[in-house]
Design brief:
The structure is a homodimer.
Chain A: E1 21-24, E2 27-30, E3 35-37, H1 41-44, E4 48-56, E5 59-61, H2 63-76, H3 85-99, E6 104-114, E7 126-135, H4 142-147, E8 149-157, H5 174-185, E9 190-194, E10 207-212, E11 215-218, H6 227-239, E12 243-245, H7 250-254, E13 258-263, E14 267-274, E15 277-278, H8 286-298, E16 305-307
Parallel strand pairs in A: 8-9, 8-14, 11-12
Antiparallel strand pairs in A: 1-2, 1-7, 4-5, 4-6, 5-16, 6-7, 10-11, 10-13, 13-14, 14-15
Amino acid sequence: MNTFPALSDRHSDPAIYPPGVAYMDGQYLPISEAKISVLDNGFLHSDATYDVVHVWQGAFFRLDDHLDRFFAGMEKLHMSIPLDRAAVTEILKNCVALSGLNNAYVEFICTRGTSPTFSRDPRDAVNRFIAFAIPFASVANPEQMDRGLHVAVTDLVRIPPASVDPTVKNYHWLDLVQGLYAAYAQGAETAILLDAEGNIAEGPGFNVFAVKEGKIYTPEYGVLLGITRQTIFDIGKDLQIPYVTGDLSPEDLRLADEVFVTSTAGGVMPVTKVDNTFIGTGSVGPITQQITRAYWQMHKDDRFRTEISYP
Amino acid sequence: MNTFPALSDRHSDPAIYPPGVAYMDGQYLPISEAKISVLDNGFLHSDATYDVVHVWQGAFFRLDDHLDRFFAGMEKLHMSIPLDRAAVTEILKNCVALSGLNNAYVEFICTRGTSPTFSRDPRDAVNRFIAFAIPFASVANPEQMDRGLHVAVTDLVRIPPASVDPTVKNYHWLDLVQGLYAAYAQGAETAILLDAEGNIAEGPGFNVFAVKEGKIYTPEYGVLLGITRQTIFDIGKDLQIPYVTGDLSPEDLRLADEVFVTSTAGGVMPVTKVDNTFIGTGSVGPITQQITRAYWQMHKDDRFRTEISYP
């Protein structure tokens, strides 16, 4: 005779989560309670778009630009939510305010959602909006910010634009994750992936920049059009540092005077070693430092700040 | 003065889910309660592998082959779980038994999981195993099984193997989903994507086959090595229908005598229209019918069946 296990009413989750507050279905929840169905197409088909904005000293930085990209991404994926920009802004503010975080990593997501019948037609699903605020996160830790990241250029090819539109911020990261494992195996701390032509593309969550003879270079095609990347262009204009977007080979990177990467998660982060080559003097270069200072200075400019009220 | 919304203890989910039973963390749950954290890297980075096996008349079909692929995929992604094949088999059997389903769609998943600190290093995450059984699902509905699917060959390029290893069954489906929307816009019911060379790759969850002058043709590279695809080869040997794996152009497909697609979700499914071209006579062809009969006949063969005991 067979015996069968009992069916539980609710999942008891042994995992430990960081602090933070999430929003789902009109409810604000501790981040540990923010869960999506395993049947959500945002999980089962990675059928989702999202954005991440950071909060610095009680204000969002360039929130409008992140909202622009998020709403444009939803449209490209044929998704819609019953929330406009003002409603999303209100929700993001509430997540941060309820979390009490002065510096935060704020992610907002639209998933394809589920259909009651597990239909394979994405048009049958009800799209789902989720947002959460957790403590500010950075690609580089304080030690790495100080002495520069060590990166490896791996032979993995970033998913090309003919397959997935990189201007729609998406969760297709297996290439980036496999790149990380390849980089770790070479003793590096993070990875840079190539495009299909063998030029530099991007890394896990960041854009790549090289500085050569006073000019800034960064890839143009097949990469996320990062808001921090745009901020570097804005800073370049302000500081009269010329910038060029176009092909950048691994050799260009190794022969650069300075290299840095950019992300909402961390801002401007120096790179001082690429594969086995130290870049320039092997320490954080002057233009990287100048841009980093300008980046954080911009966070005090009201044109880029959206203030948050806290309880 | 600002007022702030209240924080709820638990999420109240308005969505309606199909019937079924899931397993997570040693617990069996109604599928409606099976939820993963929004912070799980399986969601935020689509950093996961999975497999789907079907249950037909109270038995798994080719379970061993699905387990082989799942465990191989985890290894390629540097994942591990504290469960061996026997333990996973036991869990899958229990999900089906507790669901009471005689015909079922059974999915088992390993996600990268989460780390308590939201670390960006995948090595810090605790991998998570999830399984669920829901009613049997098919790519084609009964009407489409009868008269053949109408498909469109879209200009989307399936994510190439240099980016994501297609032999690791994965959730990177945005190219397939955008292909579906492109197909719907052309009045078709599902989509076929191309590879980087412009040859036929695969569709959302299925492999593609053409029949020409008594031979079966199917793409060789850059596609999922489907278990049902393998079953077609096995049937080809049994029935002495020669099969060839290699490049298949969109024109080859349109000029074929018969076209069919294969998936664990539905088995062998006829295609009678590609873009605006009817295939062969425009109705389900004799070799497709012969293979379909053989496919379901194999479900009675003890070599491929793993019986389930029900309460």
